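tokens incoming
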């Protein structure tokens, strides 16, 4: 059974060159042995197991039954240069042959780590000259917590311990990163958050902006930070962390007034400002880093995902002069690091990924061409009777599914949470060749940055057709009139 299920034992289909997989056997083995992240396994088994992905090219994926799917989510917000890049595979192979691993502890380094650190210092906003490498976004944010507290110790203000974050933020899944995150479902498991982390409201105009203009709401939502600082006492507060645009929380795009006001408040109280760019970095928002679009200058930047387009795990923290000078000049040992910090193979993948982003001008293309085109396509989808509103920011976009549409985000009538309409819609999308993510009843895309205007149209047409299927399904279930 195992032999038959493995691709090595697969036959080649005559003529097509496509590999044939024993999907049923793979699903059965997966169900028997594989615990998936963020998954209800009883429900997964009931649904017949997980879909098996076997191949990718550009914005498309193929599953083990040969079905072609548009990947509207770039894997998990990460495959920025698209699938099938042999250049990254070649760079990884060459580095594995030369030096597959050596550590960066104990006064040693390696060539790809050196070159990547220099490359990142060039690409990052001014004042960022240093980088600390990790293997994931979660590890990057754990590093942020330790680095921020170390900084204030060295500044002889050790009482500055508290890090302020936001409800419904996502910063990862390790103990510290999940604590920084504001996901109630995560905090409910495993005794989180850890001490010294507090959360304020998120800048969601739909959730809390009724009766205000968006600009007024942005100032108000940033004001929650100042209220929290005053409640704690400014001398206790170490840092504020946020995603420029919240990703996993449902593509929450703050009003343009929000981040500059956050910056003003952090400056006023001398608090470190941390931008979690794990999704927004490396071109997603049409800039190398999302803070550049949102108009703020952080002291630390956490990154991962798009730095390698997910081909090999890599993350890290970019460190500005304010923090680096203290850590380097007076810090002594920073007792923190990972076996795979500065992994040569991961850094080689990142170097080639960044070379592709630059050569193909993908970041510029998002800003000038595909971002605006996605905005127009989603404005079209907002006309669908099931869609209350569409929002986009460069190459992230979201649609709100509503029961009754009344022409304004605060007047629309929503579905009951228990009806899980977003998941029903996601099912129709998945079954009909387009991957969208559902966060509640908000349907999200973040396609690879290589997507063309024509492919955006193809994706939007397919989404419209699946919205029709969803609407009919909801009518049959009696959930809409
Ligand atoms: C995905 C994500 C993380 C966590 O990264 P992992 O590589 O999954 O640990 C952190 N922050 C943001 C904003 C993310 O989207």
């Amino acid at each position: 059974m195992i032999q038959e299920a493995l691709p090595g034992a697969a036959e080649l289909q005559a003529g097509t060159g496509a590999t044939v997989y024993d999907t049923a056997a793979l699903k059965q083995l997966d169900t028997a042995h594989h615990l998936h992240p963020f998954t209800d396994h009883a429900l997964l088994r009931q649904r017949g197991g997980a879909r098996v992905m076997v191949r990718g090219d550009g914005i498309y994926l193929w599953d083990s039954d040969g079905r072609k799917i548009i990947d509207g989510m770039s894997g998990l917000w990460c495959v920025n240069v698209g699938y099938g890049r042999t250049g990254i595979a070649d760079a990884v192979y060459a580095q594995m042959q030369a030096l597959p691993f050596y550590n960066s502890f104990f006064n040693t380094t390696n060539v790809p780590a050196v070159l990547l650190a220099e490359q990142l210092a060039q690409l990052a906003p001014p004042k960022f000259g240093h980088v600390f490498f990790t293997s994931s976004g979660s590890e990057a944010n754990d590093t942020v917590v330790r680095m921020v507290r170390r900084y204030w110790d060295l500044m002889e203000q050790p009482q500055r311990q508290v890090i302020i974050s936001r409800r419904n933020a996502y910063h990862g899944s390790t103990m510290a990163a999940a604590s920084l995150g504001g996901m109630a479902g995560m905090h409910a498991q495993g005794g989180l958050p850890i001490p010294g982390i507090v959360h304020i409201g998120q800048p969601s105009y739909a959730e809390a902006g009724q009766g205000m203009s968006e600009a007024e709401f942005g100032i108000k939502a940033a004001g929650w930070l100042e209220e929290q600082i005053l409640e704690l006492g400014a001398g206790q507060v170490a840092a504020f962390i946020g995603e420029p645009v919240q990703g996993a929380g449902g593509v929450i795009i703050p009003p343009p007034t929000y981040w500059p006001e956050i910056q003003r408040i952090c400056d006023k109280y001398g608090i470190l400002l941390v931008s979690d760019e794990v999704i927004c970095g490396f071109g997603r928002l049409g800039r190398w880093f999302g803070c550049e679009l949102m108009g703020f200058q952080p002291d630390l930047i956490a990154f991962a995902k798009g730095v390698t387009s997910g081909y090999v795990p890599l993350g890290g923290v970019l460190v500005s002069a304010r923090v680096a000078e203290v850590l380097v000049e007076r810090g002594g040992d920073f007792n923190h690091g990972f076996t795979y910090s500065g992994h040569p193979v991961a850094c080689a993948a990142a170097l080639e990924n960044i070379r592709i982003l630059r050569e193909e001008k993908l970041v510029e293309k998002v800003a000038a061409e595909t971002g605006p085109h996605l905005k127009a396509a989603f404005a079209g989808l907002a006309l669908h009777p099931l869609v209350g509103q569409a929002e986009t920011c460069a190459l992230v976009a979201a649609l709100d599914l509503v029961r009754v549409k009344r022409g304004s985000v605060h007047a629309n009538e929503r579905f009951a949470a228990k009806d899980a309409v977003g998941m029903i819609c996601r099912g129709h999308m998945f079954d009909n060749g387009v991957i969208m993510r559902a966060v509640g009843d908000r349907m999200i895309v973040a396609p690879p940055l290589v997507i063309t205007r024509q492919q955006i149209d193809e994706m939007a047409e397919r989404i419209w057709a699946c919205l029709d299927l969803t609407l009919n399904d909801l009518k049959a279930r009696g959930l809409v009139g």
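note: Residues 77, 136-138, 141, 170-172, 243, 247-248, 276, 278-279, 304, 315 surround pyridoxal-5'-phosphate (CB under 6 Å).
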